[in-house]
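Quarterly update from the structural biology core.
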Amino acid sequence: MKRFLVNSLKIAISVGILAYLVMDANSKGDFAVLLGRDKQWGALAGAAVLCFLAVLITLVRWYYLIRALDLPIRFQDALRLGFLGYLFNMSPVGIVGGDLLKAVMLARNYPGRRAEAAATVFFDRAIGLYVLFVVASVAVFFTGMGRCPNATIQAVCSATLAVTGIGTLGMGAMLIPGLTNGRASALMARLPYLGGLAKQLLTAVRMYRRNVGVLVGSVLLTILVHSFNAAGMYLIASGLYRDPHSLGAHFVITPLAHATGVLPISIGPFEAALGELYAAAPLPDGRFLQGSGRGLVVALGYRLITLLIAAVGVGYYVSSRQELAEAMRSADEMEAAGQSLTAPPA
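Predicted structure, tokenized:
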């Protein structure tokens, strides 16, 4: 019952956010303007290609992390599990999450190495989130958006730089053996609310710490991922509007909007964040879009492209239904029991 209520609350929040954003944009005529405007289909097609490449590179990164732990997976199998995870990450709340499903399906192929399977998924996500802020911070520096007269953008840029600094210190500290073993790690694992997350991160770091090349390669691949996503969002805006925000601005806006992915609500926060950042950031001519719903329209364009990409996962779903059903059952039971995949099997 508790799980049903939590999932119902998540759905209600997502629907509420989207309903408000759609009504607000419609009242300002954004959808009417969009329907009557000529589209730049070449730019939109380019955006789809870049977004697809970004997803593909994330799967290459995950394959790289799997092989680094001597799990002998084939590249085509990593693609299959990765696209299935992408599909399930886009599914409505209440369905098993894509990350957990990937870890469970990988662990099923390598009995006795459950912790390694979980570490690949968790470390993959942790690197993606950290580099997200690094890319945004570099863009803040080179575009000068931190000096924007808008107070909201100034606050967002300052917070981005602070999070990046803290994250860099944290990543550096994690590479020190004394902090990931013994008493220090035990204390971190007992932290209220964050203890479980810290334990998972420490487990993953212990497995990858000795292979600096894997860390460097993963970071470089992730920079490509976020760069392609930012350029893709710029092309979406260019395909829908004649006066989009600059490419540099999208290198700040896009990563920060994507950072809402850490929230347990899959739909709604990204659209809201993009709308706020679009309204707060200046256009190349110095104008602001206060009172515009353009951010939501661009976000919906991005969501449509991600649905097209997720169609690849549908093909894998059809060919793996029995394996998926068993993995979903296992993942669902683990979520209900609050178990961690990094814990030793009972």
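The chain is about 75% helix and 0% strand.
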